[in-house]
């Protein structure tokens, strides 16, 4: 099981933050029905470990489940114990990367500058999350890929159906998606079909190669 290969093939990671355990059931069902293969719940979500465990039980064989906002080694340990199959962070913490590599767990740390990106990659991260993309913008991604074209970047923040093709064209190996996948009204009403339809549109967009 090489989740980096899965990431680079599917080119999408679904990110869920601040969601209830009940709403997470709807979200997980809709996203997996729509074809998402990598689902992440951030650890600053109340009950995140329970959601990870629930998703592992419900969606085994359909999607891989990971933990986001992993800020230190203790959080990484707890996430893995809860069933997280990959780890994502908003920052570069070399001790977290070292722990993940030792445990054989995929880690995609967040970085903004060339120095951070290279440090994360050299420490053992096979993919580096470029964050915050919504603020950095697509021109930044394009510019930073020129000298760092050997490092796969997971561009996270600001992507929607109107601009996701630009993310890939600028050099993103994959895109992290949050609220764009989960319409609030669909979550509130438990409408997993609407979430599946929304997800499917992004999955289809990710399949289009330049």
Automatic annotation (TrEMBL):
Alphabetically list the UniProt keywords: Carbohydrate metabolism, Lyase
Question: Which class of enzymes does this protein belong to?
Answer: lyase
A single GO molecular-function term is: 2-dehydro-3-deoxy-phosphogluconate aldolase activity
Q: Which domain of life is it from?
A: Bacteria
Keyword Cell inner membrane found: no
Q: Which InterPro entries match?
A: Aldlse_KDPG_KHG (IPR000887), Aldolase_TIM (IPR013785)
| EC numbers on record | 4.1.2.14, 4.1.3.42
Pathway field of the UniProt record reads: Carbohydrate acid metabolism
Give the UniProt family note. Belongs to the KHG/KDPG aldolase family.
Outline the subunit composition: Homotrimer.
* Protein name, UniProt field: 2-dehydro-3-deoxyphosphogluconate aldolase/(4S)-4-hydroxy-2-oxoglutarate aldolase
> Organism, per UniProt?
Paenibacillus tundrae
């Amino acid at each position: 099981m090489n989740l980096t290969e899965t990431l680079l093939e599917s080119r999408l990671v679904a990110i869920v933050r601040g969601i209830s355990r009940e709403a997470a059931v709807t979200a997980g069902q809709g996203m997996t029905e729509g074809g998402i293969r990598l689902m992440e719940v951030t650890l600053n979500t109340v009950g995140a470990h329970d959601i990870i465990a629930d998703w592992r039980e419900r969606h085994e064989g359909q999607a891989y489940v990971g933990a986001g906002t992993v800020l230190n080694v203790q959080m990484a340990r707890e996430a893995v114990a809860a069933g997280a199959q990959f780890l994502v962070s908003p920052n570069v913490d070399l001790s977290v990367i070292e722990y993940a590599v030792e445990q054989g767990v995929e880690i995609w740390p967040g970085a903004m500058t060339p120095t951070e990106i290279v440090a994360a990659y050299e420490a053992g991260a096979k993919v580096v999350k470029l964050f915050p993309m919504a603020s950095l913008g697509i021109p930044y991604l394009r510019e930073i890929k020129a000298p760092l074209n050997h490092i796969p970047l997971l561009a996270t923040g600001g992507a929607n159906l109107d601009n996701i093709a630009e993310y890939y064209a600028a050099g993103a190996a994959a895109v992290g998606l949050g609220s764009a996948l989960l319409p609030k009204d669909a979550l509130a009403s438990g409408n997993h079909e609407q979430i599946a339809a929304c997800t499917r549109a992004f999955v289809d967009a990710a399949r289009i190669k330049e």
